[in-house]
UniProtKB/TrEMBL annotation:
Name of this protein: DNA polymerase delta subunit 4
Chain intervals with Low complexity compositional bias: 24-33
Basic residues: compositionally biased ranges: 12-23
Cited InterPro entries: DNA_pol_delta_4 (IPR007218)
Signal peptide segment: none
Region: Disordered, residue numbers: 1-41
Amino acid sequence: MASVSGSMKGFYRQKKNTTKSSKKAPANAKSDAPQLVSHADDDYSASEAMLRQFDMNMAYGPCAGMTRAARWERAQKLGLNPPQAIQTLLNSGKVQSESLWDGRI
């Protein structure tokens, strides 16, 4: 009978990657991989920045599938004390009513 440890050692032996690629893609070469979209450079006002902070604050509950105003009202009814400045911005009509995550999740 063959040694069990010897056959198991060979069975689980890892192979090293011996192929080395010395070719580097030029910095301006296009990749076939999908690119991530960054919204960090979006131009937006201070009021929109405040609303985005409200969107990201999970203390007021989830925001998927509802408008910012509906989320603010729900948080108020639940006694979570959302900022009054958010309601003022939302009532002004000069800001986007959809949350930051609308259409993305």
